[in-house]
Every structure is written in structure tokens, then in C-alpha cells.
Amino acid sequence: MSERHTPRERAFWSIGILVVLLYALIPVAWMLSLSLKKPEQVADRKFYSGISFKNYEVIFSDDTFLRALVNSIGIAAIATIISIGLAAMAAYATSRLDFTGKTVILSGALAVAMFPPISIVGSLFELWRTIGLYDTWLGLIIPYMTFTLPLAIYTLSAFFREIPWELEQAAQVDGATPFQAFRKIIVPLAAPGVFTAAILVFIFAWNDFIFANTLTSTDNARTVPAALAFFTGASQFEQPIGAISAAAVVVTVPIIIMVLIFQRRIVAGLTAGAVKG
Amino acid sequence: MEAASTTETRTATPPAKKGITDRAKAERKLAWMLCAPAVIAMLLVTGWPILYALYLSFQRFDLRFPDQKEFVGLSNYSDVLTSSTWWSDVWTTLIITVVSVSIELVLGMLIALVMHRAIFGRGPVRAAILIPYGIITVVAAFAWKYAFDPTSGFVAGLPLISDTAQPLNTKAGSLLVIILAEVWKTTPFMALLLLAGLALVPDELHEAAKVDGASTLQRFFRITIPLMKPAILVALLFRTLDAFRIFDNIYIIQPGGALGTESVSILGYNVTINRVNVGLGSAVSILIFICVILIAIFFVKALGTSTAQQRGEEA
Asked: Could you tell me the CA-to-CA distances from B239 to A275, B190, B287, B293, B302 in Å, in that order?
């Protein structure tokens, strides 16, 4: 294989790959480097100036950050579970069953995917304050669940179409109802696809800033992106660069590890949902 | 998206029997029961608030003076549409959208080609580009903001760049940093969508063209691009709408949209949440909603024409 390629070709691709790697890694490396600096080193503009865990000590003894971390994980996880549950049912119907209105449902989901959240934050702000959902977990879970449904439905339908259909028919011939066939045959076969969709949905909910910013006001439900934006140091007008960087690294590393472990699935999920949907 | 799905063979459903059998009826009922929760959730959480926003946009409604709430017809809309802020924000948003999506298309295509054609190292490239995808937008915005920080950022310390360069103190510089942050974070998504499109271009066409003496560039522009047109349009549709809604990056890099970096979403936020003028803010929200619909219609029409053309050529 490799002998067919000239040194020039190899050099060309090596440079291309190197550029892509640098492109992806530089901001992450900068954040990591800032987080490991001592306060007096922050202005030295160097990528490496020794390792100090002072900033990490600061954020892990900060209730605001810890609360935000718990809120983020809890809210994103619950929204993911509900969204995947509802989407799995809808995706099963749209990919396996024949019924009028299927196109309407899929187009509707597509419309929600294009919907601008800013257009409803005002109404939700007003409504949530009236009905007591403002600054609560549920107040964020509801929009996250809804806005991830299209992504989940399209990704899951694409995966569900790949599942061998005959197995379900065989189960139905053996006397299983359509629902039993769904639960006993499709669910286990669909688990990898469901897992992939769940990762994509979790990342979406974990990333949100606009709802987290507008629909919360205290540690009660404020998630990490919103907490980072409101993080202030000793002086109100100066952002604590080191502490924010450390917090950023803490919330980034687990996602990066997850993304790298499941990279094949994530790529398959993102492209399947968009192209085949 | 719809067009792409029609080309797929529907092996899933057995051909309909004559009349509606009990089985078909049960199937339809089950289908609707399975879809109902998702459909109801989407309708309730998007449909209802948007209608409520429409209602509020016709009211004078300021949370500081809730007693003065009253129907004022289109006056909020005329206030927004005659204000120079709205139009300069639309302009800023369009600049950010067009510039960042164009750069993403070119970069995304290059990365997709590297992933599709590279003779080695596809794994590391795929892993690397998923990193920006997985990172929280707010975190990425902080990373770029701190990289360009005049006192502590590494950019000002780079060779060839003036130590006194302070892009975040000017409008143009801030917009560049915002666009850079946007491009960095979302190019991977573009690249993956384009990669999926690349995979649909048959290798035989390239081989045939090669035999006929077509150069690499000719093959790219005459074979790859035309065949990928639907995939490109889908990617552009998603990214354009997403970029038009830009909020997080601006909020972090220039808080409040300072120095003329205010986008329409930031304006909606400032009016509704900061100044609690819910009536006026709702008018801004509805106008943004209309812009999004117009952009979507434009791309869906273009997509329809391009897939129709392709089908025509194939027939």
C-alpha cells in the first residue's frame, strides 16, 4: 500500500493532517495552559510555565461551580433520557410503520430543528415565572428535551432503518403483538443507535447557554455555561482568567474523552441523521 | 432531506393490502400513539410560546410597569423596524453569518477531503475535529477571548503580530475573533456533513474522467461538486440558520454585544431579559422568526431545484 505513494504525497498529507490537528488543539491547549498557571504567570503569554493546581483548588472549593456542575449533569441527563424515550417511539413509527401523516411529523421535527430559541425565551421567561418553573430543573429540562427531539428522531430513524426487519416479522408471525415485537426484538438491536443518539442529545443539552442564561437566576438551576458567564473574581469587574480556565477544562475533559471513545459512532450518527433523514 | 429519503427503497413496509385490514388499522393507531408524545411536546414547547410571543408583540408590556399593559397593534413592530439599532444588528448578523459560513464551507470541504482521501492518518483527523464539536460553545468562546486578550493572550506575543495589537478593542477586530470562534467550533459539523456527501460520489466516475485526462481540479469541480450539491445545500442550510441565531460567542467575547457586535439574538435578549420590555422584545423575536423562515424557504427551494435537476439528468 504505502509503496505506491511518493514521498511528496506522504509529505503533502502529513502537513494536511498536522494542520488539522493544530487547528483543533490550539485553543484547548491554551485553556489548559492558562488553568495550570499561577496568578502571577497569567500574563506571560507562554503555553507552558510550570504546573500549579491552585486554580483547580479554587473552583473545587467554590459552591457556585460545584452546584452548576451538578445542575448541568442532572438536567442534561434527565432531558436526554426523556428525549430519547419519546424520540425512540416516534422514530420506530416513522421508520417501521406505514401511516398517513408521517411526512407531516418528519417535516414538523425538521421545522423545530430550525427554530430560533431566542424567539421563545421571552415567552418562556414570562410563562415560567407565572407557573413557577423559573429557575428550576424542570424549567430547563422541558426546552432541552423538546429542542433535542428532532436530532434524536432523525438519528434514531436512520439507525432503525438498518435493523433487520424480518426478525420483527418473524416475532409477529409467532404471535407477538406489534408492541411486543418492538420491545423484545427492536430495542436490543437498536441499543447501539440509541446510545449514539443519547450522546448527541447530551452534548446538545450540555452545550446550551441561551435557555440556561434566561430561565435561571440562582445556583438552584444554573448550569455550567451560564455559571461561567457570571463567574467573577475578587473584583467584580475582572474575570478570574485562571479559575474560569480551570472550570472550562473540568467540564471539557470528560466530553472530549467520551467523544474520542465513541468517535466512530458519533460520526455515523451525525451523518446518518442529516443525510438519510 | 425529504428528497434524499425518497430515493431510498422502502423495504420496511409490506405493500398495502386491498382495503384497510384490521392489521393496518392497528398499525396506524400504534404509529400515532408512538408519535403523539414527541409531537405534543414539540407543539407545546415551540408552538405555544411562539403564539404567545406573537400575542405579546401586539401589547405594550414592560415588566417594570405591568399595570400599563395594553393592546397597541403594530406599534412595537414599527418601533423596531424604524430603529437604526435593529438594522445595524441585522447587518452585523448577516456579515457574521455570510463570512463564517463561507469560511466553514471551504475549510469543511478541505477537512472532508483529507478524511476521504488521506492515504494515512484518517483516525487522528476524525478524532481531532470532534474535539471542537464536543466543547461547550461558551468554553470555546472564552478560549478564543483569552487567546486574544491584550495582556495575557498568546496571539499578541506571536512573531509578525504587533505586541500592541488589541483586536478586542475594535469593532472589526472583535467581529473577526467572534467569526473565528464560530468557525472553529462549527466547521467539524460542516466537514462531517460534507464527508457524508463525498461518500455518495461514485469512484468509477473519477476513474473514467481520469482516463479521459481530466485533472484533479477539473474532476473536483466538474464531478464532485455537482454530485454533492444536495449535501452542500443541506449543510449550508443548517449552518446558515445556526449562524444567524449566533448568541453564545458574542455574549462571552463582547458582553452585551459591545462595540457594535450586537446580533439580532443579542438584541432580543437585551430588550426582553435585561430591559424586561417583553412587548418590544417579542416583536424582535417574531421578526427573527420570520427571518429564519425566509432563510429556510430559500434553501429548501434551492434544494428542491437541485435534486429535481439531478433526477432529470439521471432519467
From this structure: 14, 7, 20, 14, 15
